[in-house]
Amino acid sequence: MFLMLFGLIVTGIYACLGFYKLFRKKNWTYRLLIFSGLLASFQLLLSIIKDGILAPIPSDTLYGPITYMVSYLLLRKMYVAIYRVEPTYNRCAWYDPEDKRRQNLLDIVVHVLPFLLSITVAVQLAILKSN
User: Fold this and answer.
1) Whole-prediction pTM value?
2) Rounded distance, CA 53 to CA 36, Å?
Protein backbone atom coordinates (compact mmCIF):
# COMPACT_ATOMS: atom_id res chain seq x y z
CA MET A 1 0.00 0.00 0.00
CA PHE A 2 2.84 2.38 0.87
CA LEU A 3 4.58 1.78 -2.45
CA MET A 4 1.36 2.38 -4.36
CA LEU A 5 0.90 5.76 -2.69
CA PHE A 6 4.59 6.56 -3.09
CA GLY A 7 4.40 5.99 -6.86
CA LEU A 8 1.33 8.22 -7.18
CA ILE A 9 2.85 10.97 -5.03
CA VAL A 10 6.13 10.98 -6.99
CA THR A 11 4.17 11.18 -10.26
CA GLY A 12 2.19 14.13 -8.88
CA ILE A 13 5.40 15.86 -7.83
CA TYR A 14 6.82 15.38 -11.33
CA ALA A 15 3.69 16.91 -12.82
CA CYS A 16 4.02 19.94 -10.52
CA LEU A 17 7.68 20.35 -11.47
CA GLY A 18 6.67 20.26 -15.12
CA PHE A 19 3.95 22.85 -14.55
CA TYR A 20 6.47 25.15 -12.88
CA LYS A 21 8.84 24.82 -15.87
CA LEU A 22 11.66 23.23 -13.88
CA PHE A 23 12.22 20.59 -16.57
CA ARG A 24 13.71 23.28 -18.78
CA LYS A 25 16.85 22.92 -16.67
CA LYS A 26 18.81 19.92 -17.89
CA ASN A 27 20.24 18.98 -14.47
CA TRP A 28 16.72 18.53 -13.00
CA THR A 29 15.63 16.49 -15.96
CA TYR A 30 18.52 14.05 -15.99
CA ARG A 31 18.56 13.52 -12.24
CA LEU A 32 14.83 12.81 -12.14
CA LEU A 33 15.11 10.54 -15.16
CA ILE A 34 17.78 8.49 -13.36
CA PHE A 35 15.65 8.42 -10.19
CA SER A 36 12.65 7.28 -12.22
CA GLY A 37 14.70 4.55 -13.83
CA LEU A 38 15.78 3.35 -10.39
CA LEU A 39 12.16 3.27 -9.22
CA ALA A 40 11.13 1.28 -12.29
CA SER A 41 14.05 -1.13 -11.77
CA PHE A 42 13.07 -1.57 -8.13
CA GLN A 43 9.49 -2.28 -9.19
CA LEU A 44 10.67 -4.84 -11.74
CA LEU A 45 12.77 -6.62 -9.10
CA LEU A 46 9.90 -6.46 -6.62
CA SER A 47 7.46 -8.00 -9.07
CA ILE A 48 9.90 -10.79 -9.94
CA ILE A 49 10.47 -11.59 -6.26
CA LYS A 50 6.83 -11.32 -5.18
CA ASP A 51 4.50 -13.14 -7.54
CA GLY A 52 6.29 -13.20 -10.85
CA ILE A 53 6.45 -10.55 -13.49
CA LEU A 54 2.97 -11.26 -14.88
CA ALA A 55 1.01 -10.87 -11.64
CA PRO A 56 -0.49 -7.41 -10.99
CA ILE A 57 0.59 -5.88 -7.67
CA PRO A 58 -0.33 -2.50 -6.15
CA SER A 59 3.21 -1.15 -6.40
CA ASP A 60 2.95 -1.10 -10.21
CA THR A 61 2.44 2.65 -9.75
CA LEU A 62 6.24 2.90 -9.44
CA TYR A 63 6.28 2.70 -13.25
CA GLY A 64 4.38 6.01 -13.32
CA PRO A 65 7.35 8.38 -12.85
CA ILE A 66 9.39 6.83 -15.68
CA THR A 67 6.31 6.91 -17.90
CA TYR A 68 5.85 10.60 -17.09
CA MET A 69 9.48 11.52 -17.73
CA VAL A 70 9.85 9.62 -20.99
CA SER A 71 6.55 10.81 -22.45
CA TYR A 72 7.16 14.40 -21.32
CA LEU A 73 10.67 14.48 -22.77
CA LEU A 74 9.52 13.02 -26.10
CA LEU A 75 6.61 15.46 -26.37
CA ARG A 76 8.85 18.36 -25.35
CA LYS A 77 11.44 17.42 -27.97
CA MET A 78 8.69 17.23 -30.60
CA TYR A 79 7.32 20.61 -29.51
CA VAL A 80 10.74 22.29 -29.67
CA ALA A 81 11.35 20.79 -33.12
CA ILE A 82 8.05 22.18 -34.40
CA TYR A 83 7.88 25.63 -32.76
CA ARG A 84 11.56 26.32 -31.85
CA VAL A 85 10.55 27.44 -28.32
CA GLU A 86 10.04 25.63 -25.04
CA PRO A 87 6.48 24.54 -24.21
CA THR A 88 4.72 26.64 -21.63
CA TYR A 89 1.80 26.01 -19.34
CA ASN A 90 -0.16 28.64 -17.47
CA ARG A 91 -3.03 27.06 -15.61
CA CYS A 92 -5.06 30.23 -15.27
CA ALA A 93 -5.04 31.77 -18.75
CA TRP A 94 -4.14 31.15 -22.37
CA TYR A 95 -1.37 33.74 -22.13
CA ASP A 96 1.92 33.13 -20.34
CA PRO A 97 3.41 36.39 -19.03
CA GLU A 98 6.84 34.83 -18.38
CA ASP A 99 7.32 33.72 -21.99
CA LYS A 100 5.24 36.62 -23.33
CA ARG A 101 3.22 34.46 -25.70
CA ARG A 102 -0.11 32.75 -26.06
CA GLN A 103 -0.42 29.07 -25.32
CA ASN A 104 -1.61 26.73 -28.00
CA LEU A 105 -3.24 23.33 -27.72
CA LEU A 106 0.06 21.48 -28.05
CA ASP A 107 1.38 23.36 -24.99
CA ILE A 108 -1.45 21.84 -22.98
CA VAL A 109 -0.92 18.39 -24.48
CA VAL A 110 2.80 18.41 -23.64
CA HIS A 111 2.04 19.01 -19.96
CA VAL A 112 -1.22 17.14 -19.39
CA LEU A 113 -0.87 13.98 -21.52
CA PRO A 114 2.24 12.62 -19.69
CA PHE A 115 0.44 13.04 -16.36
CA LEU A 116 -2.63 11.18 -17.61
CA LEU A 117 -0.49 8.43 -19.11
CA SER A 118 1.53 7.97 -15.94
CA ILE A 119 -1.54 7.80 -13.72
CA THR A 120 -3.21 5.18 -15.90
CA VAL A 121 -0.11 3.03 -16.40
CA ALA A 122 -0.78 0.95 -13.26
CA VAL A 123 -4.33 0.22 -14.37
CA GLN A 124 -3.19 -0.64 -17.88
CA LEU A 125 -0.49 -2.98 -16.52
CA ALA A 126 -3.00 -4.70 -14.24
CA ILE A 127 -5.32 -5.31 -17.19
CA LEU A 128 -2.51 -6.61 -19.38
CA LYS A 129 -1.07 -8.82 -16.65
CA SER A 130 -4.40 -10.38 -15.74
CA ASN A 131 -5.14 -11.48 -19.33
Assistant:
1) 0.85
2) 19
